[in-house]
Structures are given as C-alpha cells and as structure tokens.
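Write out this protein's structure.
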Amino acid sequence: MIDLHTHTTVSDGTDTPTQLVNKALAQGLETLAITDHDAIAGWSSAIQTLRGDLKLVLGAEISCLTAEGISVHMLGLLFDGANSALLEALENTRDERLPRMRKMIELMQADGIDISISDVEAAMPVGATMGRPHLADALVTKKVIKTRDEGFLELLNNDSKYYVAHLAPTPVDAIKLIRAAGGVAVIAHPFASMRGQILQSSDFVDLKAAGLNGIEVNHRDQNNEERLSLLSIASDLDLVMTGSSDYHGTGKLNSLGENVTDPAEWERLEAMADARRVVTA
C-alpha cells in the first residue's frame, strides 16, 4: 500500500511523526508520505523511527489561494528540504495563520459563540502549526459542536460566514516552488465539493503548464462523479493519478491507507523528481 498524504501533530494530525510511522509499519504499508500543512518539522523524527521495509516520502501540503480566492492545497513531495525559497514560502504561510485565526474567532464571537484564541491554543499539540482543525477541536471542547467533522460541515468550510482567507501562494507559484526545489507537485482533492468552492476542469491546463505532476483522484471527500472527472483530466493532460488517505489520526474519520496509489503510478511520479529522495531504513 502506498499512501501519499498524511498529517501529524506538526500540523493538525493527532499522531506524532513517530506514532504515524509505527502505525504504518503495523498496518503493512509499503510507502508512507508525511505531508504536514506548510511544515517539514516532522521529517527528522519520522526518519529516526523508520525501520523494516517501509519507505518514507518527505513532503508538505502547501496552502494556496487562486486569484479568485479559492482555497487549494498542493502536495509537494520529494523536494530538497534545504531549499531556501520553498522554506521561506512555508514560513510566510505559517506566520499568517495566527492573525487569520483571530479574525475567524472575532466573527464567531460577534455571533455569540463562546470561543477564544486561548481555547484554540489549548487544543493544539506542542509545536503544531495552527489551523482550522484546532479551532474545531476547541469548539468541541466548549460543546459548541460534537465533532471536528461537524465543525467543517457547518462552521468552518470555505463557504462559511466565518471563513477567512489567508496569505498564500497561488497554485501556479506553489508548483513552481516545488519543482524548483527538485520535487514533484500533486494537487490534493481538487474536486472535493463538500469543502466549498472547487477548481474547474479548465484550470488544470495552466497548472500543467506550470509543472503540475499529478492529481489526487481517489480521496474520501470526492464522490464517484468527481473522481471520474479527475481521471479524465489526468488522462487528457498525461498527469499521474494518485489516491491517498489524508490521514489525521483521531481528528478525522479518514483511515490510514483507505485510498492508495497504484505502484506503477507512484514509480512514474517518483521518477519526475530531480533526485531519488525516498528514505529507507
């Protein structure tokens, strides 16, 4: 099994990188990618835990915004972790998360929702990159909602009155940064309509021109019709087709390895990086 999209406590997952690697080993995964939001701080401990036959793919899920204000997530895999331009872009996006969170909380407070920035901070693991899932966890603790998933369905999705856009590169710029750092770019869940606004089929032509390598086709948040559309786009544009869990631990229903990537597609994707960076024990 090849799972190319997972999260740890470095961003909004509930497993530490060490715990995630151990779970992947226990479940018999062959290849695991760690792709925390706008962060690579979990790489070192994941590498230290690696053993057996498990292969580790290091990456990040980069938060992007289109010119029209649509939120897009771009998976960067196998890039040089010392590339200064990409690291600076990740840091800038992380720095924007606190003021963004304050604005979302202010909107909620104005509607009488009992929540504060300290509540969100209390819900975050030490060293985590702040995000909407932590706000959801804080709302669960305050008994405003029952689960994190309920929070995204009702209060925190991209179409919610409480949603606040953030400083982020465009998808095209993110792709160029990833490719310049020697990695490969795979757009994550681009047709996940339950999350709010989504891309259009025509958008992929420009992404391909910028260097996009693949599309995450099989994902829990994309229905069969959306998956079939993405399969067609990937075929027409000769893009790699991936499937991933987007695992977050107990924070979401997604199970490790529930969607996986075909080995032949992964072999093709890995060959597109400028160096062999898969980590083995």
